[in-house]
Amino acid sequence: MAPPKITLLRSNDHRRMPWKNGGGETVEITVSPDGAGLADFDWRVSMATVATDGPFSVFPGIDRTLSILDGEGMTLFIKGRAPKRLTQASEPLSFVADAPTSATLIDGTITDLNVMTRRGRFTHSVRRVSVDGNSEVALGDGTTLVLCHRGNAKINGMAIAAGDCLLMSDGAARRFSISGKAQLFQITIAAI
After folding, report:
1. Is 90 exposed, middle or buried (0-12, 13-18, 19+ CB in 10 A)?
2. Structurally, how many domains does the chain consist of?
């Protein structure tokens, strides 16, 4: 089996761009295929700063997962669902990006992590990983991203700091060693 392909995405290289609805700015960590726009991506991982209450951009045919990175959080109003309070302590929240959605901030500006995949072609999962010492992460089929939210870590000897992301593909049933003290997000994206 060939070793997984690993790409280090440094925080200062992430692309800044306006929200689809023009209401703010997003920091695009990575998108597939490379260079895809907001209308034609297969999957996308980004962070956004939300400073005011308001509507979310609508993305037809897209599934999304939100996690709160910084700030007190927000209450999401997703059409067809009960209001959901999302904070840094909450599990990542998955929902369809084509449902009208709006948010009310709990207490001031927040930063969120947004993972989106094209429904019917890709699926994704997002989980928080706390590292304090040494541990391992398993990679399944497809693509795994490890975003360093806070602290510093080494993954198979490759150093990442806050905002950096490792993109690992072709990693079927592989395990990677992690050391350091950090809050990470593990994102797995798989083709259907």
Report:
1. middle
2. 2
